[in-house]
Amino acid sequence: MQLTLYNLYQKMLTHMGATNWWPADSKQQIIIEAILIQNTTELNATRASQLIKTASNYDLQVLVNMPKENLEELVRPAGFMKNKSKAIQEVASWYLAHNENPTKIVQQYGSSLRKVLLSLHGVGPETADVLMAYIFDQPQFIADKYARTLFTQLGINDLTDYKSLAILLAELPQPFTFADAQEFHGLIDEFGKQYFHPVEDFQKSFLAGDQLILK
Fold first, then answer.
1. C-alpha–C-alpha distance, residues 67 and 55, integer Å
2. pTM given for the model
3. pLDDT for residue 215 is more than 80
4. CB 150 within 8 A of CB 192
5. Is the separation of the CB atoms in 34 and 127 below 8 Å?
6. Where are the membrane-spanning stretches (predicted)?
């Protein structure tokens, strides 16, 4: 069956149910976890996140004021502790400087917001897109490894890296809302956990035989 992008989203939502992703109590927690999850497993990122919660309750000012050696120890389970702790403090400082007000940040930066995020230490394309979707409520697609694997299985070729898919879907088309964008990412990642280990299990899924049409 040929599917548009929105058809794909609806089919996944119908078969899998809502994931309500990102599972967090605050946007501050999401900012921290979006950095922790880089190049590590969800389990390791969660371990580091829980240590940070215990030490700071995800209060960004507490983290900014924390000695870097202390923060590095909290980040350690997620790996790359020096780089990630520096990124957490820089992104937190920037967010605090804007009064932790995502609505006003969007109003201030408009279409240049993603570029501003990319200028912050430790924020690459995937992290920037996560922040766009989950902090700033934009209909941003997150072209992570599970998304690229899924789209490849659905007939989209040459998805060799993050940029190769992101350039095709810089922003999700109508009628996607930001809430749809958040849920779509959650569905894709949950689908990947179930059917891409190994990737041959895709043929057992409810999407086997479908073809994605990107317009």
1. 12
2. 0.95
3. no
4. yes
5. yes
6. none
Do the Cβ atoms of 139 and 176 come closer than 8 Å?
A: yes
**How far, in Å, CA of 170 to CA of 144, rounded?**
13
182/21 Cα distance (integer angstroms): 6
103 three-class SS:
helix
User: What's the N-to-C CA distance of the chain in angstroms?
Assistant: 16
**Residue 209 has what pLDDT?**
97
6: left (phi over 0), alpha (psi -120 to 50) or beta: alpha
Write the pLDDT tens digit of every residue in 178-188. Answer: 999 999 999 99
pLDDT confidence band for 170 (50 / 70 / 90): confident
Measured CA to CA, the distance from residue 23 to residue 45 in angstroms comes to 13
Percentages of the chain per state (helix, strand, coil), in multiples of 5: 65, 0, 35
* Residue 130 token pair: 């996560």
- Give SS3 for 61: helix
What pLDDT does residue 27 have? Answer: 97
Non-local (6+) Cβ contacts of 106 within 8 A are 113, 136, 137, 138
Peptide bond into 198 cis (omega under 30): yes
